Amino acid sequence: MTHNTSMDHPTNLKTPKIEDPRHSGPLAGIRVVDLSSYMTGPLTATTLADLGADVIKVEPPGGDGFRGFGHKVNGWSALWSVCNRGRRSIVLDLKQPADLGTLKQLVSDADVLVENWRPHVAASLGLGHDVLDALNPKLVHLSITGFGESGPMSHAPAYDSLIQGYTGIADLQRIGEAPTLAAYWVVDKVVAAYGAQAVLAALVQRGRTGKGSHVSLPMLDVAAYFNFSDMAQHRTFVGDTTPWKTPFNPVVRTADGHLIVTPVNGGQLSRTLKAVGRSELKEQMIAIKNHGEMIDFFYRNLNDILSTQPTAHWLKVFEPHDVPVAPVMSLDQHLADPQVAHNHIYHEIPSPAGMDMRVPRYPARFNGTMLTPASAPPLADADAQAIRAELSTTTRPA
Prior knowledge:
By secondary structure, the chain is α/β, with parallel strands linked by helices. It has 18 helices and 15 strands. The chain folds into 2 domains: about 5-235 and about 345-390, Rossmann fold; about 260-325, no CATH class. Helix content is about 40%, strand content about 15%. A hairpin with a 7-residue loop joins strand 13 (about 345-350) and strand 14. The longest helix has 24 residues, at about 185-210.
């Protein structure tokens, strides 16, 4: 069931201004060399591409091994395609001097280099930070690692699921006695977001100082930083050893599905009870001194009440009372939701898979203007000739 808010509240249906980020995006004119694989580095580079950057993906012989990962359509990995949109591709064997020389030419004319190798791999290839700095003192070099460039875990393999284990995510998401991973790669995506943020900060710093920088971003550090504010409330104050309290489940059953009902203050709670015609329950709740027992009483009664009518009925009941409520949508229902359509979140772009791709645009608007998503993912080495031709001409103006 989709809650059609646009029918209940007419909105300004004027088509928003939508522009190609390569021409008008805030990073138009910035060149990024992407040496990364898997998800963290490529999604960082895609974010920069969605903001207008020119991204060149350097792939090993045979192409990026992640091209074949996960769900495929006509031989194309959906995950790889989404994470590697908006860039050109060149295949280089970095163990061969000529190809290594080509990469160094690319780096000398780039603004940003993104890689997610294990520590010391870059140096072993002759691409240590001292070499990169000599090639291009203005380069912003982003190194995404699992655990950092030193320390007892620095050389260990690192993937999203492992970092969930190391940072308490799996432990706090227990189902019964069993630790449980998130159903999606939350760490990889958050690392990519902080990767793009760190690159942007380094570019601002370069604008102020004229110098590039080496930005080291460990996945462990990102997950800890991202999760701490709410996940570690009971460890925020040093000496507090309060046990973890599993958050209350605000999902309430209806006659044909579920609703999420989340009153967070007394006024909202009162309006929720008034909407369902059970205001008298508030006095009973006030008499319960234990907060956990009081909330349990509230949701136990709410489940009994809401289970008598379908989801659509309760959405209409709650709306005039300004109750914070949402239907539990399937992914397909989300894609068809009127507010999603109004926001122009998803766009369809051509792809080499023989069918269009659905991709989200960059979420921010700049002076009211939306940026279309970066172009489709490339065939391996598809742009080698054009890229090599560019290298033989005068470098880009500073």
